[in-house]
UniProtKB/TrEMBL annotation:
It holds the Pfam family IMS_HHH. Residues 12-192 form the UmuC domain. It comes from Paludisphaera mucosa. Belongs to the DNA polymerase type-Y family. GO terms for molecular function: DNA-directed DNA polymerase activity. The gene is dinB. Its EC number is 2.7.7.7. The keyword Metal-binding applies. Its cofactor is Mg(2+). Poorly processive, error-prone DNA polymerase involved in untargeted mutagenesis. Copies undamaged DNA at stalled replication forks, which arise in vivo from mismatched or misaligned primer ends. These misaligned primers can be extended by PolIV. Exhibits no 3'-5' exonuclease (proofreading) activity. May be involved in translesional synthesis, in conjunction with the beta clamp from PolIII. This is DNA polymerase IV.
């Protein structure tokens, strides 16, 4: 009980910018406003780094191959990413955060956790702080942000999705446990498609079903994550907001609706994953020396293959070449592949100007 009481004294805000890259492009080019926009890729090749809300209505989403996105939305407008602009705007937003609390944990250029339990403006209400921050972001950048307010990180992040775009949602300590009970397990942060399918096969479809299972049952079926799911089902998350959090890797993975059996299918599936990883590298100026491929077969057997190079991977083409080389030995495949993942680790900040561009400073 003491853990839960301590948990409820915390005041956590999760700020998430609305369709950040695409919104910046629409802000800076009035001709794009109200139109379906995809940042990144091209009509023939590449992947979508971000999609405007107008494009999302057609099913266009980040990491989707550009060809697929164009098929879903024939009127889609592709815009080249301007990561220097996105970083500059992100710095503006973080400067606003810093006026309220030093406990800011950025997750990416467009989202962050803030612990405002003890805040620099001595404002008692976390909801009031969130409203003030959203208003200032709009006034100073011309962009909208959604916010979630709660007593832990898990619920604050879920709350920020509830009223998107340009919304605010609060999950109070009194409301938290009941809110979690009605939440589909697929909306739990950290529960992906494979784990969700496994839970549903066990009759666990929402937080209430999850809460009804014992810790030992969850550990038996989900290993080390079992106790974590046990706590989440009760609205408990004691992770602190870490202002000095260091990212150790950049990764993307996907589970397929139908298993893959050929190298050609796998290479096509890998391309958007490489694109998603490289988009983050471009946005953050992080580069890595170790590329890892993960494959999970239909029988849930998992293999990983890694390669470390002498210098940080300098381009998407190089990363794709390394991953493709790691992929080849997996074929011909005796069993179908249900999941593929790409990770870049051994990260460092890119300090070299490339292609004549001005050096971009880290955040």
């Amino acid at each position: 009980m003491n853990v839960v009481r301590a948990e409820r004294r915390r005041k956590i805000i999760h700020i998430d910018m609305d369709a950040f890259y695409a919104s910046v492009e629409q802000r800076d080019d009035p001709g794009l406003r109200g139109r379906p926009v995809a940042v990144g890729g091209s009509r023939e090749r590449g992947v979508v780094a971000a999609a405007s809300y107008e494009a999302r209505k057609f099913g266009v989403r980040s990491a989707m191959p550009s060809v697929t996105a164009k098929r879903k939305c024939p009127g889609l407008i592709f815009v080249k990413p301007r990561f220097d602009v996105y970083r500059a705007v992100s710095q503006q937003i973080r400067a606003i955060f810093a006026e309220y609390t030093p406990l800011v944990e950025p997750l990416s250029l467009d989202e962050a956790y803030l612990d405002v339990t003890e805040n620099l403006k001595a404002i008692a209400s976390a909801t009031a702080i969130a409203e003030e921050i959203r208003a200032r972001i709009r006034a100073e950048t011309g962009l909208t942000a959604s916010a979630g307010v709660s007593y832990n990180k898990f619920l604050a992040k879920i709350a920020s999705d509830e009223r998107k775009p340009d919304g605010l949602f609060v999950i109070t300590p009194r409301r938290g446990p009941a809110f979690v009970e009605g939440l589909p397990v697929g909306k739990f942060h950290g529960i992906g498609p494979v784990t969700r399918a496994k839970m549903e096969a066990l009759g666990i479809r929402n937080g209430g079903d999850l809460k009804a299972r014992t810790s030992s049952f969850l550990q038996e079926h989900f290993g080390k994550a079992g106790p974590y799911y046990f706590r989440l089902a009760r609205g408990v998350d004691d992770r602190p907001v870490s202002a000095d959090r260091v990212r150790k890797s950049i990764g993307a993975e996907t589970t397929f609706g139908a298993d893959l059996f050929t190298a050609e299918e796998a290479r096509a599936a890998i391309e958007p994953l490489v694109g998603k990883v490289w988009s983050y590298c471009e946005a953050s100026t992080l580069r890595g020396r170790t590329a890892t491929l993960k494959a999970k077969y239909a029988d849930f057997r998992q293999v990983t293959r890694s390669r470390t190079v002498d210098a940080p991977v300098a381009s998407r083409a190089v990363l794709e070449e390394i991953i493709s080389a790691l992929l080849e030995p997996l074929f011909p495949a005796g069993k179908g592949i249900r999941l593929l993942g790409v990770t870049l680790s051994s990260l460092e900040v890119d300090s070299e100007p490339r292609d004549g561009r001005q050096l971009r400073l880290p955040l």
